[in-house]
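Final report, closing paragraph on structural work. Over the funding period we assembled a curated collection of sequence-structure pairs, and we close with a single example.
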Amino acid sequence: ETKPDKDIIGRKYWEGKAVTHKQLKSSVSMGTVYTNAKTVRVVCRDYSYVDGDIIKIFLNEKPLSTSISLKASSYMVYMSLEKGYNRIDFQAMNQGSSGPNTAELLLYDEQDNLIASKEWNLLTGQTATIGVIQKD
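Its predicted structure, as stored:
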């Protein structure tokens, strides 16, 4: 029997396992890019058969959104970067009706310059990660 930690108000569970202190693990690295921008625009869409792929986006291991259903049209979100290293994770919540979870990612700076263009093919629960270093 485990004793509850006094500083934890609620415990998180994923598929029956306690994940309260579990860090987000990256399954696929999409590399690291450098920018002077303080804000980036993330654009993603299902680049394959549109089959109900669902993702969750994290910035520096904090969830930015509830689940996002990827379509043929683009989903867009703006992110404020911290100085130094920023970690952006895209977690596959499912594989749609025809796996794997497929998406195209475009990353733009404040001047609308494309700073990264990536794709992923993820299984359910896997995470694709891109690092963005804000140089100021």
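The chain is about 0% helix and 50% strand. The mean pLDDT is 87. We thank the funder for supporting this effort.
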